[in-house]
Amino acid sequence: QVQLVESGGGLVQAGGSLRLSCVASGRTFSSCAMAWFRQAPGKEREFVAVINWRGLITYYKDSVKGRFTISRDNAKNTVYLQMSELKPEDTAVYYCAADRNIADVTPLAREYEYWGQGTQVTVSS
After folding, report:
1. Could you report the per-residue pLDDT of 47-61, keeping only the tens digit for each?
2. Which residues, 6 or more positions from 100, have their beta carbon under 8 angstroms from its beta carbon?
3. Rounded distance, CA 104 to CA 97, Å?
4. Is residue 103 over pLDDT 90?
5. How many CB atoms lie within 10 A of CB 123?
């Protein structure tokens, strides 16, 4: 079992930066792929970024490439999402998710067994 708690969201002006953190409980964190998803009002949840269990493979949604960076610290059971050059369209609730399949590095939400409660990111224009 893995429990996830996100933090770091808030209100920021366009062009600003935020760093989201997701702390996991449970001994299986280091073998999980970790991802960030987001959901804007009235829209479906969408993939943002994923990092494999060793932190060596990452994938990003096209619209955040070059602006967002996902990383992890297995010693701290924490995954991060550094967000820069934020745009109003990045406004959403951001969710951290864990995939127990050690071989996975997937953008598919259905593959993730554990989810955090979400943290709100609001970017003003």
Report:
1. 999 999 999 999 999
2. 2, 28, 31, 32, 113, 114
3. 13
4. no
5. 20
